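Chapter summary example.
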Amino acid sequence: MVYKPQIEHDVQAMPVEQLVCELRGASPENSSIFFEEIVRRFEPLIRKAWRRSAHLSEYDDFAQDAFVRLFRGLPGLQNPKAFPGYFRSIVISVLLDNLRRGPWPFTDDIKATEQVTESVDKQILTGIFVRSYLEHLPPREKEVISLEYLGDYPTADIAIKLGLKPGAVRTVKARALKRLREMLIQNANILEENCGR
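The structure predicted for these 197 residues follows.
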């Protein structure tokens, strides 16, 4: 039996690792539904990486290269919790390919290439992990983390927006980050058993 989401919201509410699991076992028609949701969530990070790469290629070419590699590789990803690291490696790989093909100074200057790569890596790494595990957070924590890490709101603005004191925002954020860290290190065995089809 092929899984078909009842409504688009079902897919939008799925954690990333569940999307990866579903993608692995889906029909070609349904796999596009899951992949489109992954693209929707992570395209802003591809765009951010491109901006930091000194625009060495057209954005559409850069994004297409990254997402084609991702689409080809995801069905074979054995551990869905490895998605953040896998996504990061693809973005860095596409970036390096662009730097190698680009004009001077990047083609001849290893240090300049490393600086651009490190800058992109630092810029997108937090975003990858936050977007990957955001759906697991309780509503208030999800709200605070979304506003700060995805919306770039400062603590004072988040407090006003949510009707909280800045100290309460910091407390919620600390709890959320602790929970996100725990998610990153927890054992993936149960999920692997659920995904084994």
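To summarize the output: The longest helix spans residues 28-52.
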